[in-house]
Amino acid sequence: MHIRRGDYVNTYSNYYHILDDTYYLNAIAYIRDKCTNTKLFVFSDDIEWAQNNYKDIENIIFVAQNKSYEDMYLMSLCKHNIIANSSFSWWGAWLNENDNKIVIAPKKWFKNEKMKNSILPKSYIKI
């Protein structure tokens, strides 16, 4: 699961939709409904925020102190992906070679409703 905050919270808050707990909790529930014995690896540019908000979730591991390319590599090795509305998340899921992967993506990518979210493959589950 990738959580993008950082510059989205301040600099780009008028451009990108900031994903809330509802999105992430629904995505986690979807994956856990389809898969058994799931471990959730969390990657974020604000890992402290993620730890504070998701610490009570069962079988969760917060991945911290990696370089960004290491995080992307590790994201690509996960069985499934829950992505944020960011190109970094998108690439982590795209590079995942698991033929049976489930990728959960936000239905709403941009704040401006007129901007279409056409970069998501049809196989991605939009929540």
* Average pLDDT score: 87
Order of H and E elements? EHHEHEHEHEE
Low-confidence stretches: none
Q: Tell me, what's the shape?
A: globular
- Compute the number of helices: 5
Q: Can you tell me about this structure?
A:
GO terms for molecular function: galactoside 2-alpha-L-fucosyltransferase activity. This is O-antigen biosynthesis glycosyltransferase WbnK. Keywords: Glycosyltransferase, Transferase. Pfam families: Glyco_transf_11. It is globular, with a radius of gyration of 14 Å. The protein is α/β, with parallel strands linked by helices. It is built from five helices and six strands, in the order βααβαβαβαββ. The mean pLDDT is 87. Helix 3 links the parallel strand 2 and strand 3. Helix 4 (68-77) packs across helix 5. The chain has one domain (2-126). Helix content is 35%, strand content 13%. The protein has a three-stranded parallel β-sheet with strand order 1-2-3, with helices on one face. Strands 4-5-6 form a three-stranded parallel β-sheet, sandwiched between helices. It has helices at residues 6-9, 21-34, 47-54, 68-77, 87-94, and strands at residues 2-3, 40-44, 60-62, 81-82, 103-105, 125-126.
